[in-house]
Amino acid sequence: MSTLSASLPGGTWTLGDLTVTRFGYGAMQLAGPWVMGPPADRDGAIAVLREAVDLGITHIDTADAYGPRFTNQLIREALHPYPDSLHIVTKVGATRDQEGGWPPARRPEDLRRAVQENLENLGLEMLEVVNLRLGDAQGPQPGSLAEAFDTLVELQRQGLIRHLGVSNATAEQVAEAQAIAPIVCVQNMYNLARRQDDELIDELAGQGIAYVPFFPLGGFSPLQSSALTAVAFRLDATPMSVALAWLLQRSPNILLIPGTSSVAHLRENVAGAGFSLSEEDLAELDKIGR
Ligand SMILES: NC(=O)c1ccc[n+]([C@@H]2O[C@H](COP(=O)([O-])OP(=O)(O)OC[C@H]3O[C@@H](n4cnc5c(N)ncnc54)[C@H](OP(=O)(O)O)[C@@H]3O)[C@@H](O)[C@H]2O)c1
């Protein structure tokens, strides 16, 4: 672990046997509009990925569905051969349609193909962490994940996957996955304003399993709240960095994967997320999502 990584806000976490910085990077925003097609500014996208690694970030979150394929190919072009310290987490279980939708693709043959495509597009022989993406664009949906998760466990036994996780999952599905095989992370939507997983986060913290909130800054509708603006003003910080600092302080098992297509925003987020929020700040921020 470089000195740079050690000094990133939040320090590090261990995913199975992989040490990652709690401050990671989510690559979804690098594709074209609505995550379809190539980025408008290709060189800019490559610069963001290289800057993330230069800042000491060792956790990048992606999926072959982003673009589709373009984001993984950009990661490969920008960063391959990957430094040993860098860990790329990907997900399978959803594909893209002509309209830019995210239909589920969780039949065994879909998952085998998706793992192969991630390996090829990222230029890897083994995927270090694969999340099974459940539910749909509306959020988690109830139902058994057994057939899909069994398929990933089989691919893990074949040496194509190191660690498993689940995404967009209900608490019941997390428990069902854990009854089949160990998981190292859960990636669900969560931020200052969306607190539905509070209980799950605490449970996973007790088990040493990472919780990785997607849309930590609100995603396609960036967080807006007068309480957030007030706290940020008081701290002379940006609302985005306060939202990230809050997540880091919320629980030690939370890993950040904020997305950005801008080097300036990436630097700003890394620089700002290390704020120590006071009891008063936390109480005010806590009201946003309750
Ligand atoms: N598992 C799943 O189903 C799932 C679903 C969605 C996302 N994800 C993952 O989660 C990651 C994070 O989600 P996300 O990127 O969609 O949402 P996000 O991190 O909540 O927000 C990204 C948005 O915030 C803006 N932003 C970032 N820093 C900013 C700053 N300092 N000032 C102003 N605006 C700023 C970005 O715009 P700029 O580009 O202009 O900076 C972008 O539009 C994704 O990259 C992806 O890896 C997973």
Keywords:
single chain; 290 residues; alpha/beta; seven-stranded parallel β-sheet; two-stranded antiparallel sheet; 11 helices; 9 strands; binds NADP nicotinamide-adenine-dinucleotide phosphate
Largest sheet: 7 strands, parallel
Strand/helix succession: HEEEHEHEHEHEHEHEHHHH
Tell me the helix content. Answer: 25-40%
Low-confidence stretches: none
User: Count of helical segments?
Assistant: 11
Number of beta-strand segments: 9
What form results from the Cα inertia axes? globular
| Biggest sheet: strand arrangement | 3-4-5-6-7-8-9
Bound molecules: NADP nicotinamide-adenine-dinucleotide phosphate
Helix and strand composition category: alpha/beta
What share of residues are in beta strands? 5-15%
Cα distance, first to last residue? 38 Å
Multimeric organization: single chain
Using the CA coordinates, give the radius of gyration.
Answer: 18 Å
The averaged pLDDT comes out at: 96
Tell me what the structure shows:
Helix content is 39%, strand content 13%. The protein contains 11 helices and 9 strands. The chain has helices at residues 3-6, 42-54, 70-79, 108-122, 146-157, 171-180, 198-207, 226-235, 239-250, 263-272, 279-286; strands at 12-15, 18-21, 25-26, 59-61, 87-92, 127-133, 161-167, 185-187, 210-211. Helix 9 packs across helix 10. The radius of gyration is 18 Å and the shape is globular. The termini are far apart. The structure holds NADP nicotinamide-adenine-dinucleotide phosphate. The site of NADP nicotinamide-adenine-dinucleotide phosphate has 28 residues, from helix 10.
